[in-house]
Write a structure and sequence with these properties.
By secondary structure, the chain is mainly beta. Helix content is 10%, strand content 45%. The chain is built from 3 helices and 11 strands. The strands form 3 sheets. It has a 7-stranded antiparallel beta sheet with strand order 1-2-7-8-9-10-11. The termini are far apart.
Length: 227
Amino acid sequence: MRSGSSALSQQGLPLEGPARVSNFQPGTPARFRSPLSVGLGGSRVLGGTTLHAAVEVFARVPVFRILDSDPIPVEGPERVLSSDVFYGLEPVVNAALGAEHRVGDKLRVYLSVHTDFSAAINLPNTSTLLGTSDLYHVATGVYFPVRHSRVTVGTDLAWGRQTTRRFSDLLALTGLPPPSESQAIHVFHATLVVGLTLGLGGGEREEDEARPRSDLEVPIADEGGAR
């Protein structure tokens, strides 16, 4: 191992990676700008099944500074290091589709899919804590009434990918050739959903609480005109 390290050093390939720099600045101002968004959705009841659809459009947010910190003194040719974090958002559209189906008098099952596309602008100094993956979600589960409340149990699965050049940049700083200009990061999330909706008042029956609520549900008149 020592002879190999010596040979690499003689070839002019430094083995020392970038040094870790730590700095603590209390009271650093931080801010985040949320984009303006407009959403539209609706539902339709078809027998024992309710269909849902929604779409939301997000506006662009110009690049701004999230953290406004003081320069950090370091050793080497660069005497100071900027630790400011910048962020920006491009316009993006996300959509969702869902369905609920009544099973028996009380139990209902649901299934939904929706997109969670990232609008983050790819900046060279974007923090790794800010996710930029385009995600796809699939959620499924059941819900049922308990007295005047409703219990929901389900799961949400999300997957996606993003591209980064951080590994290539790190290898370039050490003098080693990167295997490629960028690398793909695959993301997978699995979430357990347990919810409880509390109902106030006791005017509804349990079997009515299991039915979907929709403005499209209207009473149907029979031939005699009675409702």
